[in-house]
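Build the 3D complex.
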Amino acid sequence: MPGKQPTILAHGGAGSDNAHSDGTDRACLIGLKLLQARTPVLEAVCQTVEILEDDPRFNAGTGSRKRSDGSVRMDAACMDSRRHFGAVSAIQHIKNPIHIARAVADSEYRLLAGEDAHRYALELGFKEMDMTRVESNAPGTDTVGAVVFDGEQFAAALSTGGTGGSRPGRVGDVPLIGCGLYAGEHGAVCATGHGESITLNLTAYRTYEMLGRGIVPQEALDTALGWFKDSQDIGLLIVSQKGHAGGSNRSMAWSTLSGD
Ligand code: ASP
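Done.
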C-alpha cells in the first residue's frame, strides 16, 4: 500500500504447513474479488473464512479437530471497524460457524454459546453438518482467520476447532473480543496460536492500540510476537492505512493480496 487499496490477508493457523498456502491464496483471491465488488467488509471477511472452513486441511469447520473425548466444538468471531462484533463458542454440527458469528453481530447479542448457539443457527435456517467425519484429534492448531480493508473500513474474522486433544469445556481466545481479534478505525488484527497466552496478552487489542499510535504493521507485529515465549505458538495478521504484515514464530500458511 500504503493508502486506500483494497487489501486482504488470510491464514491457516500458527503451526500450519506453509505448503497449504494454496488454500489461503484461494481464499484471498475470492475475498479480494468481493471487496472489489463493494461487498461490505464484514461480509467479505466472513465469506473468506468460509472458504478456509471448507478446506479440510485446516482446523476449522469441516477440518475441525477432536477434543480429548472425541467430540468436536467450534468457536468463531468477526468484527468490523463500525463496531459490529459477533461470536459463537462451543458450537457443533454446523458447517460454517463464521456465518453464525456474523448473524450474532447483526443481533442484540455479542456471544452465543453451546447448545443454544446451535439452536439459534437452526432457527436462522443454517443446515446441520455431520461432524462424525472428523478424524483427527492430533494436538495442534492450524485454525483460520482473515483481515480485510476496502479502502475505508476494516474487518477481521476467525474460526477454529480449538486445540486438538484439549479438555472438553476449554475455550480459547477466538470468541473473546480484543484477544483473538479486533477491528477499529485504525485497522484490523487477528491472532492465531496458543489461545491461553493470546488471551492473557489481550493480543489483538494491544496490537491494534499500537496502530492507533501510528506504529506501522510490521513493527507492531514484531513487538507483539515478542510478548510470547518460544514455547507458545503465535501468529498475527495486521492491516492498517499504513500497510499490512503477517507472520508467526512457527510455520504458517498465510497469503495477502491487494488491488484496485
Ligand atoms: N487460538 C486458537 C485457540 O486457542 C487456536 C489457534 O489459533 O491455532 O483455540
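Residues 21-36 form the longest helix (16 residues).
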